[in-house]
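Protocol step 4 of 5: obtain the predicted structure for the target chain.
Materials: sequence only (see below). No template structures provided, no constraints applied. The aim of this step is simply to have a reference model before the mutagenesis design in step 5. Sequence pasted as it appears in the construct record:
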Amino acid sequence: MKRIFILSLTLFTLLSCSSDEETVDATTILGTWKLISHSDTNPLPDCMKQTRIIFIEHGNLSGEIYEPNGENCDKTNLVASYEKETETSYTVIGSSTILAEVELESNKLIWTEKSSTKTRILNFIKVK
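Step 4 output (structure tokens):
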């Protein structure tokens, strides 16, 4: 009986230990998001796969946007703010202009840019 108890306790201890893998909480917009698809291009060029958006507390965000330019990969730094509209909806603002509407869906962030002539949709997944 004592052996069964010790074996059970040992097994419980081993199973309850956390793994070294980091768990990503995709229920909050805060964190780093990686571009996985873009409505203008399919498949996504390797250059654009480097694009990251970082949502920081207090309504700030930053990012690095990568776009192909011939054989080169151009990087643009993004600094903007965001406002929460609903539990899963946000507006991204840069220099007093609305840059995008953002929806948080499960583990995906959907970034929608609208102009008078075009709508672009970018999909991101959370990496940190």
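Step 4 remarks: Confidence is low (pLDDT under 50) at residues 1-21. The radius of gyration is 21 Å.
Proceed to step 5.
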